[in-house]
Specification:
- The strands form 3 sheets. A 5-stranded mixed sheet has the order 2-1-3-10-6.
- By secondary structure, it is of the alpha+beta class.
- The chain has 2 domains: 9-139 and 302-359, Periplasmic binding protein-like II (D-Maltodextrin-Binding Protein, domain 2); 141-300 and 382-435, 3-Layer(aba) Sandwich (D-Maltodextrin-Binding Protein, domain 2).
- It is globular and about 55 Å long.
- It contains 20 helices and 10 strands.
Length: 439
């Protein structure tokens, strides 16, 4: 049997045995807010298995990433009570846990094996040593590229390339007549969409959001170099309308064979190599996210989409049962048995990377290497007063970073210059930090 619950598989089935009338009269329903990413949609397809085992019904509210963040933030801060489980990440979890807005996950069953969660994920989803969200999957970012186009261009992708090589390769693979863009990257506004990507890109050029005294750094040459490089790269070899492209839009382009390269979340690897969905499934290679020449930091992030319980839910016990089920070793085995090891949720558990079958998955090692290369405590070349790689782990970040990302997207769309976007970013950020008392 693949599934376990907090009660243990055998005892759970025994306790839930009875007549259909008994089950119906005692049935409870939990409501889960989640992002419209492929692994979450796949999880919804297995919900009936959870309900059959536990008698707990599940209602899903599936939202685009930016909308999800708005909805769950509003609900948790106002104690709205719309959701029993929220899909959140490494930015929100420690802050919300410290505020008392989340139920601690400090009493999960021994069978669940919390210690098996990868340390990077467990630490990022904890506050003062207490876990407040369980990772459904973990990720970094890496390069996915067309091996056939790279070969035709007479180039060989290094395991750890530079941005300068990426531009050379994008130029060589760009083929507008055949609707192939040399590279596809995020430009969509939103701190966790295009904002996340340009932040790690800036890190890899030696930039940072703040100096050690919380002064904004958008007026520094490293930011200008990073943003100009990105805009020129995408204007020359990226798709039309890239300013509105996020994860899902670029995934679709890559699966349709319209991208020579794509740098994004490692979790995308299972989708671009799935022959049922991707026209280039057998032609995909992987490499570490790039750095700029002479800069040690790479453009890779660290993230987990995780399941958390808002404080005040009336379904805490049932919500914990679902979290144990959905983030367990046995859920991974269930997906593997039905859809193959390449399609299991990656990046969350140590035991997955010790599984012989998973070690044969072509992107498994590069995913783990990318996760291990990301250090949120040391995200930039020069020292910073914050933790976080593609975000700054302070409550004010989400709002101001969304505004900054909107200015950058306007530059991508040609509505203003890079210089104007950076000037506005500097003003937005300093104003927020002064108002919040950081300076």
């Amino acid at each position: 049997m693949f599934m376990r619950t907090a009660l243990g598989a055998a005892s759970a089935l025994a306790m839930l045995a009875g007549t259909a009338a008994f089950a119906e009269s005692h049935a409870k329903t939990i409501t889960i807010a989640t992002v419209n990413n492929g692994d979450m949609i796949r999880m919804q397809g297995y919900t009936d298995t959870f309900t059959e085992q536990t008698g707990i019904n599940v209602e899903w509210v599936t939202l685009e990433e930016n909308v999800l963040r708005q909805r769950v933030t509003t609900d948790v801060t106002t104690k709205g009570g719309q959701f029993d489980i929220m899909t959140i990440g490494m930015y929100e979890t420690p802050i919300w846990g410290a505020n008392g807005w989340l139920v601690p996950l400090n009493d999960l069953s021994a069978e669940y094996d919390v210690d098996d969660i990868l340390p990077a994920m467990r630490n990022g989803l904890s506050h003062d040593g207490t876990l407040y969200a369980a990772p459904f999957y973990g990720e970094s970012s890496m390069i996915m590229y067309r091996t056939d186009l790279m070969e035709a261009a007479g180039l060989e992708m290094p395991d750890a390339p530079t941005w300068q090589f990426i531009r050379e390769a994008a130029a060589a693979m760009d083929d507008p007549e055949n609707e192939i863009n040399g590279i596809c990257l995020r430009g969509k506004a939103g701190w966790g969409e295009g904002g996340a990507f340009i932040t790690v890109t800036a890190n890899s050029f030696g930039a940072r959001w703040f100096d050690e005294d919380w002064n904004a750094q958008f007026d520094q040459p490293e930011w200008a170099e990073a943003l100009n490089f990105y805009v020129n790269l995408m204007n020359d070899y990226g798709p039309e309308g890239y300013a509105t492209n996020g994860f899902n839009e670029n995934l679709n382009l890559f699966q349709q064979g319209k991208c020579g390269m794509w740098i994004d979340a490692t979790v995308a690897a299972s989708f671009v190599t799935n022959p049922n969905d991707s026209t280039v499934a057998d032609k995909v290679g992987f490499a570490l996210a790039p750095n700029s020449e002479g800069v040690e930091k790479r453009a890779n992030w660290l993230w987990a989409w995780a399941l958390a319980i808002p404080a005040g839910t009336q379904q805490e016990a049932e919500a914990k049962q679902f979290i144990e089920w959905a983030t367990s070793k046995d859920y991974i085995e269930l997906v593997a048995a039905n859809e193959g090891w390449a399609n299991v949720p990656p990046g969350a558990r140590t035991s997955l990377y010790e599984t012989a079958e998973y070690q044969e998955v072509p992107f498994a090692k590069m995913t783990l290497d990318s996760i291990n290369a990301a250090d949120p405590n040391d995200p930039t070349v020069d020292p910073v007063p914050y933790v976080g790689i593609q975000f700054v782990a302070i409550p004010e970040f989400a709002g101001m970073a969304t505004e900054v990302s909107q200015e950058f997207s306007a530059a991508y769309a040609g509505q203003q210059s890079v210089e104007e976007a950076l000037e506005k970013a500097q003003a937005i950020t300093n104003e927020v930090m002064e108002g919040a008392g950081y300076r």
